[in-house]
Prior knowledge:
Elements: H1 10-15, H2 32-35, H3 38-45, H4 50-56, H5 61-69, H6 71-80, H7 86-94, H8 99-117, H9 140-152
Amino acid sequence: xxxxxxxxxxxxxxxxxxxxxxxxxxxxxxxxxxxxxxxxxxxxxxxxxxxxxxxxxxxxxxxxxxxxxxxxxxxxxxxxxxxxxxxxxxxxxxxxxxxxxxxxxxxxxxxxxxxxxxxxxxxxxxxxxxxxxxxxxxxxxxxxxxxxxxxxx
Length: 153
């Protein structure tokens, strides 16, 4: 096959048409949150996990506002975390804390409790060994569980 100096493809010669060149027009990108009702945006954001919600809230001011202000989103996240103690959640709700604050606070608490129950602090000899570790106040019932776990070891 020889090179066609006109630049016309054999396919277009058969069809009898030359390719139409469309000018490249920049289509404006739209933020879906700007076009949907807030309730729909919240439903979409509700499909994200807590880490992804935090990342999404940094996308733009509108996303941040919707995510931060949605008690529904944070309540759902809080209830999905299986390690959170329900009595702690109930107490925090009575104290008027937001669902997001409850999620962060109780997730931290559950991690500390888990580490204690696994024995990560069983052989601590001084406070210096705990430097840099996240600690949080624990209630009497949790301390009871931890002490029982230590006795069982």
